[in-house]
Amino acid sequence: MTLNFQLRHLVMLLSLLMALPAFVVLGSWLLPQWDSWAHLADTVLAGYIQNSLVLAFGVGITSGALGTWCAWCVSQYQFPLVNHVRWMLFLPLAIPPYIMGYLYTGVLDFSGPIQRQLRDITGLSYGEYWFPDVQSMPGAIFVLSLVLFPYVYGLAYVAFTSQSRSLLQVAQNHGLNGWQYFIKVSLPLALPAILTGILLTMMESLADFGTVEYLGIATFTTGIFRTWFGMNQPLVAAQLSAGLVCFVLFLFWLEKRVRERQRFYQNNQQNERLSRQISKTNALLVLSSLLLIMTLSFFVPLLRLVSWSWLVFKQSTEFGELLALVTNSVLVAGFAAVVIMAIALLFGYALRNKPNKLLSFVSSIAVTGYAFPGAVIAVGTVIVLGKADLMLNEFLGSVFNWQPGLVFSGTLVALLFAYSIRYLTVGFQHVNNGLNRISPSFDQAGKTLGESDYGVLRKIHFPILKSSLLVGGLMVFVDVLKELPATLILRPFNFDTLAVKTYELASDERLTDASLPALLIVMAGILPVWVIQRNIKSH
Q: What are phi and psi of 277, to 5 degrees?
């Protein structure tokens, strides 16, 4: 039995295992609960659909505008600090959306510093003046857009900088000014990349739980939690999840179609930089607009987080619980990163060595988990592993008269299984990109020297792939560290992480106490943001 044969069958088995929760969620409609659905339709279902759509499109439009504007400015114009601004615009990615929601609520609510100053200056009392309410749909769109716009910014930046200088020269020869060149030439060419970024932000906003739940917005994701834990109806929660999955899969299909179109617009020629000199007034305006966006999306939340954390740090003498939270978070995220990168390496190597249609099909299903919201994966995982526990206990009880209890569900196995499904996409992309850069002649040279398939992997591929595996593992580590919905549902009893503790404290309106674990999550997120900007720069 060759290594390729074993790998092919192992990958197929893993793919089927990882697709099981999705099949269970979609298959839940085989047992429709019409009475419960009639109750949902009479009460909250219309609100879930309307709020989810408004939130997704609101975030998509706002993030698209912010990301496109930032990418256009830093790719086209020369102004002071442009090299620093270019990578700092990625920093909001380090802040999980739910933490941004907690911070802006603390900054803008009745007892926050802005309203207090406003009342002190004007002498007005609460209710005698108008002030935007962050715990509303516009507030949720504002908060999520500030965190998610870098998705659009990164893709748009690459698209704008890939355009040839000759396009600008032709446009100028035809009498187009800068604005007309942007609208008629540059923007249409970059549109597929921008739309891809917008669709990613829409998928992220549909998957969000912590932010919308805290801000009081009833969406499909919050509905899944309420139906499961409030109404004790896991089957109906799974059917709600299936509805959300259908819409997310539609966005995922749309995103793939948009990516396919990108190939027609990319220019592989070596281009000179398009950065142009602009007047001092315009340079000041451009820099001011970008600094305002960075201030709102990163510096204000960070300063608030640091100031609250300092208060907690000064008043606390016991940090044992915080140390336990850090230990739990790092261990589970680190172990998940190792497992996911190992699976990603198996998938990538099997597809490289002996690709076939069946293997490509089953593996493509397994690596679409990132399109599924964490809550949906958690629902499917609980059902699948709960059934596995039941069967195992029945079997061992009948044969050995011994029932071990929960072996899979309710343990760290469930968490790692759910994380692997959700974040295998991230790891696989890095492994696949790394393998694509290795010429097949390396494999042939290794075989000529008498190396087996395993020897080629260990002695040739692995050393070249080390950087891809490291970067991919780092990305997975931080994603798992920030993950909230799946961790909230699947964590073992009395097992808390930084994300869960931050959510629990903020839900109890203890925003100041939640700041220290939140700050640790943000600090961990800054490192991969730096890695992302380095990759964009090298592109």
A: -75, 135
Tally Cβ neighbours within 10 Å of residue 335: 16
Is the dihedral angle over the CA atoms 305, 308, 310, 315 positive or is it negative? negative
| Residues near 49 by beta carbon (within 8 Å), at least 6 away in sequence | 220
User: What is the spatial distance between Cα 493 and Cα 411, in angstroms, rounded to a whole number?
Assistant: 8
Q: Report how far residue 442's alpha carbon sits from residue 383's, in angstroms, rounded to the nearest whole number.
A: 45
- List Cα–Cα distances, 412 to 26, 105, 359, 487, 500, in angstroms: 25, 33, 29, 10, 15
How far is 76 from 20, CA to CA, in rounded Å? 47
Q: What type of residue is 454?
A: Y
Torsion of CA 186, 187, 191, 197, to 10 degrees: 110
Residue 218 structure tokens: 């009833």
> What is d(CA 302, CA 286) in angstroms, rounded to the nearest whole number?
23
Encoded tokens for 432: 């696949």
What's the pLDDT score for residue 317? 66
Residue 265 has pLDDT above 50, yes or no: no
Per-residue pLDDT of 441-477, as tens digits, reads 887 787 787 777 777 878 888 888 887 788 788 888 8
For 175, residues 6+ apart whose C-beta sits below 8 A from its C-beta are: none
Q: CA-to-CA distance for 70 and 73, rounded, in angstroms?
A: 5
Q: Which two tokens stand for residue 503?
A: 């959510």
Residue 277's H or E segment, with its range, is: strand 276-277
Cα atoms found within 13 Å of the Cα of residue 392, Cβ hemisphere only? 13
Write the CB contacts of 472 (distance below 8 Å, at least 6 apart in sequence).
341, 344, 426, 427, 429, 430, 431
Find how far residue 165's CA is from the centre of its chain. Answer: 34
Q: Which residues contact 35 (CB under 8 A, 6 or more apart)?
A: none
pLDDT tens by residue, 75-94: 888 899 988 898 889 888 88
Helices then strands, each counted (H, E), the chain: 25, 2
Distance CA 225, CA 507 (A): 15
**C-alpha–C-alpha distance, residues 234 and 383, integer Å:** 9
- Are the beta carbons of 383 and 236 closer than 8 angstroms? no
